[in-house]
Amino acid sequence: MIEIRVATPEDAAALVSIYAPYVKETTITFDYEVPSAAAFAKRITETLHTHPYFVAEDNGVILGYAYAHAYKERAAYDWAVEVSVYVDREKRGNGAGKLLYCALEETLKKQNVAILTACITGGNQGSIVFHEKLGYREVANFPKIGYKFGQWLDVIWLQKCLTEVEGKLPPFVPYSRL
Fold first, then answer.
1. Domain count, the chain
2. Listed residue (30, 43, 42, 34) closest to 16, CA to CA
3. 8 A C-beta contact, residue 53 and residue 11
4. What is the mean pLDDT of each successive set of 10 residues along the chain, which is 178 residues long?
5. What CATH number does residue 130 fall under?
6. Which among 23, 20, 19 has a CA at the least distance from the CA of 7?
7. Whole-angstrom distance, CA of residue 140 vs CA of residue 144
8. pLDDT confidence of residue 167
9. How far is CA 130 from CA 95, 136, 153, in A?
10. 100 and 18 in contact (C-beta within 8 Å)?
């Protein structure tokens, strides 16, 4: 049974092994080099100060991970985040991605986040369909903005409202204060 839990720095090596094939073999991420486990551990720790970072685990094996981070750093964006999910390419299709995003959404609502965004490389139809099934809609397309593996790539932004965005919102609550 798949369980969702908060990521820890000790998960970094497992997360790097999930992320590495995406870096080395796809344009899904624009990283050129696979980050070290130490760099991943630092990302986890830093993210958890303000936003959730979760792993999906089945019998002690990490299947994937998802996290949120500020859409932009200025105060006016406090209620908007960018979300990302990566599932082991050998273990996709078991619902881990959806469970991770559901956990993110539940937590982000408690943080008073109103808007979710997802940045997807053009041509990654699997990710676009996944997000659309979860209620995201395309809001922007930046043609030929990234360059990897000798080709120019589009970036598509999708967005989902978690709550009504009219009127005054309660203040953003950092994850570390939940």
1. 1
2. 34
3. no
4. 98 98 98 98 98 97 98 95 97 93 98 98 96 98 98 98 87 96
5. 3.40.630.30
6. 19
7. 13
8. 84
9. 11, 9, 20
10. no
